[in-house]
Amino acid sequence: MTTDDERLLRRAIALAAEARAGGNPPFGSLLLGPDGRVLAEERNSSVTDRDITAHPELKLARWAARELSPETAAGTTMYTSCEPCGMCAGALARSGLGRVVFALATEQLTELRPPGTGFPAVPAVGPALFDEARVPVAGYYG
């Protein structure tokens, strides 16, 4: 962890405080380009946007995938106030970003929450209908 990493994490934490002050969950992120410039900043806006996917990491991953070349994206670093959730981690993997630096780990965040405030698991059933489901997928990945 460098002093620049710490400075940029502090900015992500400040963005989290801004999100909370605006009535949203307290999460913030920024994306640093390969040249060391901040390309974009985001705050969680899931409450005010009424959009459960409006996490700052996901918004930045979508922006990067849309606006940056794969080579530029690979040279970026995301600084975020908390370890990305599963949804955001999936988007980050697909976006091609270079690395993520986070402040709070998921376990630390869980310790800060009152008991019973997490999200319940959604029951899932499967796999099923393999022979039918494989038809549209077969050959897609090369």
From TrEMBL:
One matching Pfam family: dCMP_cyt_deam_1
PROSITE patterns on file: CYT_DCMP_DEAMINASES_2 (PS51747)
Recorded GO MF terms: catalytic activity
Domain CMP/dCMP-type deaminase, residue spans: 3-120
Highest rank taxon of the organism: Bacteria
Endpoints of the signal sequence: none
SUPFAM superfamilies the record matches: Cytidine deaminase-like (SSF53927)
Classification via CDD domains: nucleoside_deaminase
Ranges in coiled-coil conformation: none
InterPro entries: CMP_dCMP_dom, Cytidine_deaminase-like
Protein name: Nucleoside deaminase
Species name: Streptomyces hainanensis
